[in-house]
Amino acid sequence: MNIREKIQSFESLTLIKEAAFSSNSLGRKIKEKDDDIRTCYMVDRDRIIQSKSFRRLKHKTQVYIKTSGDHYRTRLTHTLEVAQVARNIGVGIGLNENLIEAIALGHDLGHVAFAHTGEEVLNGYLEGGFRHNEQSARVVTKLENDGKGLNLTQEVINGIINHSGLGTVKDIITLEGVVVKVSDKMAYLNHDIDDSIRAGLLRKEDLPKDIVRILGDNSTERLNTLIKDFIKTSNFNIKNGIKEVGLSKEINEAMIELRKYMFKNIYLGNTLKVERNKAKFILSQLIKYFENNPNEMPDIYVDIVEKEGLQRGVADYIAGMSDDYCLLLFNRIFVPKVVIDL
Fold this sequence. Notes:
Blueprint: H1 3-14, H2 40-49, H3 52-56, H4 75-93, H5 97-106, H6 115-125, H7 132-147, H8 154-161, H9 175-198, H10 209-215, H11 219-239, H12 249-267, H13 273-292, H14 299-308, H15 310-320, H16 323-334
């Protein structure tokens, strides 16, 4: 028995029967030989961490554009916080931690520079719209590894593409995917409140009193409330033969109201309007430039233009850029160079 088989045997002893067992995975689009040490979900996790798209997350905005402080979240630190929350929940229920971690680490690979503003710009540009969850799936299936994709398992790809929004979970094929979907909201709501207070754009006293009463008045209390409620509610469901994981009605409604508050006052409110408009201008100019000069994009995107059309190729290129790279390109293309006459 090799190490992978020992891990799979351990899964059979420790996970609930409703969990996703690596030995029963739906597999990959291109069949591969099993690893001797790692389960298929461990392999997926490692491929995501080693990808270029994952490394670029450290220079992509979570909420605040080009912040000067070291302690504001980036898209990378958000991703790590989601993985932390989701794994804690998974352990509490008895689900597959490795699958949870792989989905969590890959869920935002397709997010655009400049946070929600970048997605808004590409959504208005690309025919049929642009959604970061679909782009994340496109990254791992097509764009990474020089256009070959990462050949991940179906369970991980399904969790990535269905992580976004607060709607139905009927399209998610594993309970682990549902855990990541909700953990994403738990993580960003709490750390975005923390960052907003640090930036002086929100006071703790501004948060709706009813929500504070239910969830708690600081990040630690809110996360503890959400995580414990998710575990308790899910374990109750499983124990009673209901294959559903999630929050109780009261806690879920409170989280939805908190999300609405943050979208109205921070994400889409007037607080960051000036910075959002600057980002929109930069991205719009870059889109126009590469539409007129597609051959200046890297070869992989030129190839996409030839096979899938100009919009798709430009959108893929723009979506992959970090905030820093967008600014660098904008300056290189549009800002006049200073010539000093000595």
